[in-house]
Q: What sequence folds into this?
């Protein structure tokens, strides 16, 4: 059986080319991942800022609404108190 001799210089060159190719592809993949991550983070910050503004408006509107409801309740209670005092005076006159 005849054996083939391996050309070590040619084999070394192929290995070096493969290593260079792997390094280049890994570098490209790393840059792509870095850019994609940066875009995701930037977009997330942008969306979070928008939601923060919406929440701020909602809270301010909610506080105004709460203030109006509180004033309405106090006005209603004052009106009920006046009715109750006036009604009790009328009842005293009827039964006294």
A:
């Amino acid at each position: 059986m005849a054996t083939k001799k391996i050309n070590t210089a040619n084999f070394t060159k192929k290995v070096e080319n493969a290593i260079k190719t792997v390094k280049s592809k890994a570098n490209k993949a790393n840059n792509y991942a870095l850019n994609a991550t940066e875009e995701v983070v930037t977009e997330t910050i942008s969306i979070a800022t928008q939601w923060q503004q919406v929440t701020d408006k909602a809270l301010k509107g909610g506080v105004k609404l709460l203030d109006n409801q509180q004033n309405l309740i106090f006005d209603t209670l004052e009106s009920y108190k006046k009715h109750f005092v006036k009604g009790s005076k009328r009842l005293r006159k009827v039964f006294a």
Observations:
- The first helix runs from residue 8 to 95.
- The mean pLDDT is 89.
- The two ends are 136 Å apart (CA to CA).
